[in-house]
Fold:
Amino acid sequence: MPLVTTGEIVKGAQAAGTGVGAFNVITLEHAEAIVAAAERVGLPVILQVSENAVKFHLGRLRPIAMAAAEVAAAAGVPVSLHLDHVEDDDLLRQAVDAGFSSAMYDASKLSYRDNVAATRAAARWAHDHGLWLEAELGEVGGKDGAHAPGVRTDPVEAAAYVEATGVDALAVAVGSSHAMTTRTASLDLDLISRLRDAVPVPLVLHGSSGVPDPELRAGVRHGMVKVNIGTALNVAFSAAVREVLGGPQPPVDPRKYLRPARAAMTESVAHLLTVLTGEHPAHA
Ligand code: G3H
Ligand code: ZN
Structure:
């Protein structure tokens, strides 16, 4: 199945009243695990490469992007490629020729006025080049400490921001926080409903690893559509690696620990995808 666009996947999820998982890809094994999980449960999925992941790959976007695109292109379910948390305009410009159909432009550290100006320009450029653009108003707590985790997006301001910038989706601050390794976050469900009613584009939940299953499901029911998950995969990955390397005769062949690490990520993603679509019986 060829790569599809993020816009199509998100639109489909919104029309069906479900959430779609957008999972962060750091290594090739992440992409393989995410796609294997999506195939297992028969659901579309979004592969995201963040600006931070590009920095990890020595500042080069194409090697990890091309690898993810190849994994996606061979998938038996719809898969799209999304460039996540882009602050660097040059990186945004590289997205088009690297297989991405969408990006999240992150000007959330700027003042409201500067955020609007930068995001409006990015959205114009993105649309001229066929990219679907997500943006953020009010930084989701936990990333770089610019705001406390208690920060919340105001529905009236959010609607004005979307109108002023012309973005296709909006990341909102509703109680989640980036990079949590415990699932103890609580979503403001009433605020999510009010944002859904006020904002004319799909809502995006960031920092979803810290949100327990029932809260994730409830967040989707109240209006979240694209659900970004990264740390949960790395928790699974690292636990599997630790288990192998902590054994009596730790191997030196990386395949000996990357194979279980990839399998652990697959389990995690498959479970989360079913939670988001309400197919997990315990959380329907
Ligand atoms: O944009 C990516 C996500 O917000 C991932 O957050 O690592 O806390 O799940 P997380
Ligand atoms: Zn995020």
Notes: Residues 3 and 73 are 5 Å apart (CA to CA). The chain has one domain: 6-273. The longest helix spans residues 255-277. The chain has eleven helices and eight strands.
